[in-house]
Amino acid sequence: MGFFTLILLTSSCFLGKAAGKQQVQAEPSLVKAAVGDDVLLNCIFTVDEPTVDLSRLSILWFHRGRQLAEFDDVVTTSREGVSLSREELENGNASLLISRVGTGNSGNYGCYITYTPEVRIREVTLQVADPEEDLEDSFSSPCLSRSDILSKLGQIEEAVKQLEAKLQELVTSKSATRCSSEVASPSAPEPSR
């Protein structure tokens, strides 16, 4: 389990307990591609209900601490060439399509699924190989300096804060909706005898 996943799973423990069953799958967790390929990063989820209630669903995709795509009643993306299908979400498919990948697309991707009140996280790693690069360079592993590590931790912390704020917003709005519907339809007073 990656450090990023561990931090987010730990933070989600403070956000509430699960009321129903939800499962998330993202097979395979390592995706390999060549520069210029279109890549589908799988993130499949199931809920313990006959159909997915999109009003309870929120999806976030992150890469390197930055949000790439979001679903919260509508699909929004922050980068050209990235897409998430609303129609597929209804079928439990939150997979992310990235068109014409480059080496800058390599790295860990986080798929965050909130099905109120549950949160599930799945990490997928994308490796993009450039056939132009020397074979020896593609197998070398970079060493991270202390400042690189601290920078990455800062990105992780920011992603966790964004996720917590989004979840709090969802929980608050869903609770307010439930409370206002209860106030709007109070039970009729009992007749006096």
TrEMBL record:
BP GO annotations: regulation of cytokine production; T cell receptor signaling pathway
Residues covered by region (Disordered): 174-193
A molecular function GO annotation: signaling receptor binding
Coiled-coil positions: 146-173
Biased composition (Low complexity): 180-193
Keywords: Coiled coil, Immunoglobulin domain, Membrane, Receptor, Signal
Compartment annotation: Membrane
SMART domains documented for this protein: IG (SM00409)
A single cellular component GO annotation: external side of plasma membrane
Signal sequence coordinates: 1-20
Ig-like domain sequence ranges: 22-127
PROSITE patterns documented for this protein: IG_LIKE
Superkingdom: Eukaryota
Name this protein carries in UniProt: Natural cytotoxicity triggering receptor 3 ligand 1-like
